[in-house]
Design a protein that fits this description.
The complex is a heterodimer. By secondary structure, chain A is α/β, with parallel strands linked by helices. In chain A, helix 5 packs across helix 7 and helix 15 runs parallel beside helix 17. Chain A is globular and about 75 Å long. Helix content of chain B is 71%, strand content 1%. In chain B, strand 1 and strand 2 form a beta hairpin. In chain B, helix 4 packs across helix 6 and helix 4 crosses helix 17. The longest helix of chain B is centred in the N-terminal third of the chain and has 37 residues. Chain B starts with 5 loop residues before the first helix and ends with a helix. The chains are: A alpha/beta, B mainly alpha. At the A-B interface, helix 13, strand 17 and helix 15 of A face helix 7 and helix 13 of B.
Chain lengths: 690, 383
């Protein structure tokens, strides 16, 4: 039967890279099939080999990579038997690929239209006129506004979301039978991502394209895919339909992943996240038998560490396969037991008070030869918030909302343009870091986002912490500071030997722990954490998050947690401040913000965050367009250009007047023109199916 | 006497270089054994290009260290018997062969080539290092602070770079200029940069630990004052360090010509590195600007800077050759490669090999430096 023949059939694929250190197996014994019109999700943490699989399908492994075993069949034909010319014909026409970074996939020197038209001209040899028509049509079907204008634009003139839509359009122009998407939305903001996800979901329906969707985000896979393969350390460990995997997982790694992501059911005091212990093994240090063995709670020596484990079907679950030797012995319905359940912490006195903070940046050209024209970026327009002792306040918003600028002002890297920032009762907003005294400096510290950038690669880990202690005035001698540094290493649960390590010898999670140790070195009153876990792998995220919460709780430090990820925010924070384009549009306790009434932006943000839980029902709200530039903000309400509820406010008031801050509940503030009845009529975005 | 044959010449030359071979074997052998512990330098031994480059550079460095042992004659003594004679001619009064023949005045080319290495390999690296100090001391703040200071410094650097180098040297390295105070003032300014650099380097880090700081500052001041006295004022109390006025003039001119290039590289790297989170982390713990520049930014710019240093020593070698060729600033009889090329080039028809030793030596050293830079770049980019 032609219908049941898979588009892509990968059997026992093994890929190795050959380096100076010898052969490094990147993918081992990987099998999967993609049926026509089906979306297969490939999920795993960094280094698990998921991108290598995609490159292997494209036969684009570079000079060092080689397929050392197994077959890849595309429409029934073994790809290893195809000639280079045949492969070239297939690449970009029958199989297309969409990469993570849209700007890297587009040629910056060519107009978008030309790049799009190239595809049918090269692969089908059609004339320029019909190619242009095809390209226009495709731009419309990826829902780009004003396709004519986009055709004549250069890639840098478009936003990230628009660029990614163009990359997808380009991939679809050749009517591919198979679309490989490698983290297509990771570089985008959540509300923009939601639009792309919506688009990708419809692709299967309207074009009948099969898809291999590679992602580290389980929520995203749930929203886009029919079937899913979970990879760990170069192997597929579990495969099945999305429902099977999400609700009846049969591999301890998959289970560990689900337990370490902040689902709506998790809670930092009652049901904390459970991190997977240990680390991903290095490719040349994989254990015998099950790769996950050393990190697995169900490990049984003699069974799990013997030979190569095959994929097997668990008892009573057809079409579901797992690479676990004990899958039938484990009680999969056993309840999660959190390692610790702490008491909720009562917040103390107000530590930080921000009042009507305003920060404009002047943008000028060359200092000497520049013209007289100066423009200003209005990064923070009107920000007021308060944080009390031992409280976690989340600042939520997408890129360009001004959350990082706020952090820079608090830390003294910038001084404010107008307004007031009080730490305790001291004004700090106008005092630059160089002018701050040691006590103020050590009482506000920051945990940075990128673990690979937060430590200086040229100094030892211990040296960097000792230097912080020196600057914070902790201890009187080097020996004393070294002692404190060793205790800090204990605090962040790292071995004391790390003192002498260089940052490059540490994993991302370990570096982030050092970053936390450094921030807490001077017993700060306030720690600003700028997306501290977003760059880490899921299983590591949980451990670092828990560590941060533990230290914060025991030291009663106030934490400003900056993030765009509402799942983790819901899990961690006591209060939430939602920012958009330099304005605070909503603030309140976590419960208040997650329940109606919402600001329309909060509503869209909540709906956009992918949640990896099949029992969660979400209302779909996809925002049109992109975040306006802070250099040229729209008149009236900052959100009016994208607001789906704007029509509910009479005579275009949103476009003329800045909405007032309204109190809609005890301490729950919303900046919106919507009438009370509309606010009250809002339904919850996230609800649990009973 | 019968001149030496081709094989005899090379056997003799290779034999004369015995201290070099011994040194090469010791250095490269021991480095290759411990290469895993030697960082980037050790990794050079994994790259053929890098190893060949390093070998050539070390060859000339060792030659420059032992010219008296290697050379057969005094480099400026003239012998009528070997005047414009082909390689292998025996000098009759001493019975020693002139391996590469004699030049237009009857001086032994082999000995002159060997002695010529000393001049190039002292002035080129030293001048480049001083240029680096100048470039780093100015490039770091320009890149870090930006603004008006950056604009002014960049403008000056561009001004110097826009001026043709040879014309610049015709202006700077002439006897007329040498008699004025200009070379001394210039070198006085340039040699102040290393002292400034090390003082700030130590002070910014160890200000809170006065005892460590005192030792370092005292050492910097003592060594700095000694070099300064010897080089700028020609009054080294120990008589160890001195430069001829013409050499000082060349030195200052070379530093002047190559520091703008270093400035631009350092400025660019600084602008890139200052956006990293670890710089922000240093700022948020209240570090001063110079600490951040010298201890947070500079160490992370070292990869590209080391590569550039090798290339730049190569350029400077070429520049010195050019100066010698035009007879700028060097004593007429001095055995530097550039002067030798100029003096012998008129006699190619009489003795075709007469220009080869110095030309090949110059090209070989520059090639070695370039290969070394390639190897370093290749290895620093790997994993």
């Amino acid at each position: 039967m032609a219908m049941t023949e898979p588009i892509l059939d990968i059997e026992n694929l093994s890929i190795s890279f050959f380096t100076r250190a010898g052969e490094i197996p990147a993918v081992m014994d990987f099998s999967c099939t993609v049926m026509p019109g089906e979306a297969m999700g490939l999920v795993g943490e960094s280094g698990c080999g998921k991108s290598t699989v995609a490159l292997g399908i494209m036969r684009d492994l570079g000079r060092n990579g080689r397929i050392v075993g197994g077959t890849i069949r595309f429409r029934g034909r073994d790809m290893s038997e195809m000639s280079e010319a045949e492969l070239r014909q297939i690449r970009g026409s029958a199989i297309s690929m969409v990469y993570q970074e849209p700007m890297a996939s587009l040629n910056p020197a060519m107009r978008v239209g030309q790049q799009l038209m190239e595809v049918p001209i090269i692969h089908e040899g059609i004339d320029v006129g019909s190619a242009r028509a095809r390209a226009l049509e495709m731009l419309e079907s990826v829902r780009l506004p004003d396709p004519q204008r986009v055709m004549d634009a250069y890639p840098h003139q478009l936003s990230g979301g628009q660029q990614q839509r163009i990359v997808i359009a380009m991939a679809l122009l050749s009517n591919p039978a198979l679309l490989l998407m490698d983290e297509p939305t990771t570089a985008l903001d959540v509300t923009v991502e939601a639009g792309i996800v919506e688009l990708v979901k419809d692709l299967g329906k309207s074009f009948g394209t099969s898809m291999l969707f590679i992602s580290h985000n389980l929520g995203l896979i749930l929203e886009t895919c029919d079937r899913i393969t979970v990879m760990y350390s170069g192997e597929a460990v579990e495969t099945g339909t999305v429902g099977d995997i999400f609700d009846d997982m049969r591999h301890p790694y998959t289970q560990g992943l689900f337990r370490s992501i902040p689902l709506p059911s998790a809670d930092k005091t009652a049901r904390p996240l459970i991190a997977i212990p240990g680390q991903l093994p290095l490719p040349h240090e994989r254990p015998p038998g099950c790769n996950f063995g050393p990190r697995c709670a169900h490990f049984e020596s003699g069974l799990c560490d013997q030979g190569k484990l095959p994929m097997r079907t668990p008892r009573g679950l057809d079409g579901h396969e797992t690479r676990c030797a004990r899958t039938d012995d484990i009680d999969w319905s056993a309840a999660l037991v959190g390692e610790h359940t702490g008491e909720p912490i009562a917040p103390g006195e107000t530590v930080l008070q921000v009042e009507k903070l305003k920060k404009y940046y002047r943008v000028a050209a060359n200092e000497i030869f520049g013209g007289t024209e100066t423009r200003s970026v209005k990064a923070n327009e009107d920000v007021s918030l308060e944080a009390r002792e031992a409280e976690t306040v989340a600042i939520v918003g997408e890129s360009g909302c001004g959350k990082s600028t706020l952090a820079r002002v608090l830390l003294g890297l910038e001084t404010l343009t107008d307004g007031k920032v009080l730490l305790g009762n001291r004004e700090i907003g106008t005092v630059e870091i160089g002018q701050r005294d040691t006590e103020t400096v050590s009482s506000i510290q920051m945990v940075f986002q990128n673990p690979f950038d937060t430590l200086n690669p040229s100094h030892t880990v211990g040296g960097q912490i000792v230097r912080s202690l020196e600057k914070f005035g902790v201890g009187t001698s080097q020996a004393e500071r070294r002692q404190v540094m060793l205790e800090l290493l204990d605090l962040v649960k790292l071995p004391r030997e790390f003192e002498r390590r260089m940052p490059r010898q540490l994993s991302g999670g370990q570096k982030q722990r050092i970053g936390i140790a450094r921030a807490f070195a001077g017993r700060p009153k306030l720690v600003v954490a700028d997306e501290p876990v977003s760059a880490l792998d899921v299983s590591v995220q949980a451990a670092v998050t828990e560590l941060l919460v533990d230290i914060q709780r025991s030291s009663r430090t106030t934490m400003l947690f900056i993030s765009h990820d509402l799942s983790i925010v819901r899990y961690l924070s006591d209060r939430i401040v939602v920012m958009y384009l330099g304005h605070v549009v909503e603030q309140g306790t976590t419960e208040q913000v997650f329940a109606p009434p919402y600001h329309p932006y909060t509503e869209a943000l909540l709906s956009a965050v992918p949640i990896a839980d099949t029992s969660v029902l979400k209302k779909r709200i996809v925002l049109e367009g992109d975040i306006p530039s802070a250099m040229n903000p729209p008149p009236g309400c900052p959100f009016q250009t994208r607001c789906p509820r704007k029509h509910l406010v009479a005579d275009g008031r949103c476009e003329r007047e800045m909405p007032p801050l309204r109190t809609v509940g005890d301490g729950h503030i919303i900046k919106c023109h919507l009438a009370d009845e509309h606010l009250e009529a809002m339904e919850p975005v996230i609800s649990l199916a009973s | 006497m019968e001149p030496l044959g081709f094989l005899d010449i090379w056997a003799g030359v290779i034999g004369r270089f015995w201290p070099v071979w011994l040194g090469l074997a010791l250095i490269m052998g021991s480095s290759a054994v411990f290469k895993r512990r030697l960082g980037l330098y050790g990794r050079l031994y994994d790259s053929n290009v890098g190893m060949i480059g390093l070998g050539i550079v070390l060859f000339w460095v060792l030659t420059a260290l032992f010219p008296e042992i290697i050379a057969t004659f005094d480099p400026i003594e003239q012998f009528a018997a070997i005047k414009r004679k082909p390689p292998g001619t025996i000098e009759t009064s001493t019975g020693i062969p002139a391996y590469f023949g004699g030049d237009n005045l009857g001086r032994d080319l082999f000995s002159r080539m060997v002695h010529g290495a000393q001049f190039v390999l002292t002035v080129a690296p030293a001048a480049t290092l001083v240029a680096y100090m100048v470039g780093i001391s100015l490039g770091l703040p320009a890149g870090y602070f930006g603004g008006a200071m950056d604009a002014v410094l960049t403008f000056i650097a561009n001004l110097v770079l826009a001026f043709p180098v040879i014309l610049l040297f015709y202006l700077l390295v002439t006897p007329g200029v040498r008699e004025t105070a200009i070379p001394n003032v210039m070198s006085g300014i340039f040699f102040a940069f290393p002292i400034f650099f090390f003082t700030v380097l130590f002070y910014s880090r160890y200000a809170t630990r006065p005892r460590v700081l005192a030792v370092q500052l005292a050492a910097t001041a003592a060594i700095g004052a000694w070099l300064y006295a010897g080089l700028v004022f020609d009054s080294d109390p120990f008589g160890l360090i001195r430069l001829e006025p013409n050499e000082l003039n060349i030195f200052a001119a070379v530093v002047f010509a190559s520091s703008p290039g270093v400035f631009r590289i350092v400025r660019g790297l600084t602008m890139d590195i200052k956006t990293r989170d670890y710089v922000a982390a240093a700022q948020t713990r209240g570090e001063r600007a110079w600490y951040i520049m010298l201890w947070e930014i500079l160490p992370n710019a070292r990869g590209p800077l080391i590569v550039d240093l090798c290339l730049r020593i190569g350029y400077t070698t070429i520049l010195l050759g050019t100066l010698g060729f035009f007879g700028l600033g060097l004593a007429p009889e001095s055995p530097d490669w550039g002067s030798m090329i100029n003096q012998t080039r008129g006699f190619i028809r009489i003795a075709p090999t007469i220009v080869l030793p110095q030309t090949i030596a110059l090209a070989m050293l520059v090639l070695g430096l370039n290969l070394l830079a390639d190897g370093l770049r290749e290895q620093s980019l790997r994993d």
